[in-house]
Amino acid sequence: MKAMLLRRIVSLDRESAPLEPADMPVPAPGKGEVLI
């Protein structure tokens, strides 16, 4: 799954693009959970 990650909190005055693209595993609900 494609995602955009915010790895740390930054000031937008210093860094204009705090998000970075990443490939993540497809989420799967655990026991007693529902995937929305």
Query: How far from one another are the termini?
Result: 15 Å
Strand order in space, largest sheet? 1-2
- Class by SSE composition: mainly beta
Proportion of β residues?
Answer: 25-35%
Number of helices: 0
Order of SSEs: EE
Number of strands: 2
Shape: elongated
Please tell me the overall pLDDT. 93
Alpha-carbon Rg, integer: 14 Å
Oligomeric state? single chain
**Level of helix content?**
under 10%
Largest β sheet strand count, sense and barrel closure = 2 strands, antiparallel
List unreliable stretches of 5+ residues: none
Properties at a glance:
mainly beta; elongated; single chain; 2 strands; 36 residues
Kindly summarize this structure in a few lines.
With 36 residues, the chain is mainly β.
Architecture overview:
The structure is a single chain. The protein has strands at residues 2-6, 19-23. The protein has no helices and two strands. The chain has 36 residues and is an all-beta fold. The protein starts with a strand and ends in a 13-residue tail after the last strand. The radius of gyration is 14 Å and the shape is elongated. The mean pLDDT is 93. The protein has a two-stranded antiparallel sheet.
Topology of this protein?
Elements lengths: L1 E5 L12 E5 L13
Antiparallel strand pairs: 1-2
